[in-house]
Amino acid sequence: DAGVIQSPRHEVTEMGQEVTLRCKPISGHNSLFWYRQTMMRGLELLIYFNNNVPIDDSGMPEDRFSAKMPNASFSTLKIQPSEPRDSAVYFCASNPTVNSPLHFGNGTRLTVT
Amino acid sequence: AQSVTQPDIHITVSEGASLELRCNYSYGATPYLFWYVQSPGQGLQLLLKYFSGDTLVQGIKGFEAEFKRSQSSFNLRKPSVHWSDAAEYFCAVARGFNNNDMRFGAGTRLTVKP
């Protein structure tokens, strides 16, 4: 079990650029979550998918953010255009069944200058 | 919507001392409750969970937590803290009943003095 795999681990980009974060959930897990962690706001749920379908995206801060899950083994979180206030650590997590514990990736640290 | 409150932002304890981290939730029904630990530069790792049944649950690394419905609390405890327990601890709640929406508290940072 390789765990939840996120890439890249670190991303530094300039304001206005497009950023794509990637996640591979644990095989067999039916749900995938994207969280954002900052000092000011803690761990915020951005969006989660059940069986590749987005269930709740109310946490997505604005239209610049979008997430997709084209198949059970891959998801992306895209920010276009990026802004300095998007700087944070973005975590992907998955779980095998509803309300079972989450398995987290090691996160992507995003810095937008 | 459910919410989770961790009243203590930072706690310092001496190695060998006992530990209690507080967590309160607001939700009408009995939620699913979790404690996670995060070490620097890493993702969150599950310590323990409560779904139903015995209100005192045991977790990994010697941690335990007690669900108290009357107080809407799920406090984390450890009788004797080790230096390696220094980390950030998060309480989380899921609404249950086929709802996968999981929310986290703000976290409590634990410092262990030698």
What does this entry look like structurally?
The complex is a heterodimer of chains A (113) and B (114). Chain A is 0% helix and 55% strand. Chain A is an all-beta fold. In chain A, the strands form 2 sheets. In chain A, strands 2, 4, 5, 6, 9, 10 and 11 form a 7-stranded mixed β-sheet that branches. A 4-stranded antiparallel β-sheet of chain A has the order 1-3-8-7, with no helix packed on it. Chain A starts with a strand and ends with a strand. By secondary structure, chain B is an all-beta fold. Chains A and B meet through strand 4, strand 5 and strand 9 of A and strand 5, strand 6, strand 10 and strand 11 of B.
The end-to-end span of chain A amounts to 36 Å
Report low-confidence residues of chain B grouped into runs of 5 or more: none
Largest sheet of chain B: 6 strands, mixed
The string of secondary-structure elements of chain A, in order, is EEEEEEEEEEE
Q: How many DSSP H or I helices of chain A? A: 0
Mean of the pLDDT scores of chain A?
Answer: 94
Helical residues, percent of chain B: under 10%
- What is the SS-derived class of chain B? mainly beta
What is the general shape of chain A?
globular
Q: Describe the biggest sheet of chain A?
A: 7 strands, mixed
Mean pLDDT of chain B: 91
Q: How many β-strands of chain B, per DSSP?
A: 12
> Strand fraction band of chain A?
over 45%
**Rg of chain B to the nearest angstrom?**
14 Å
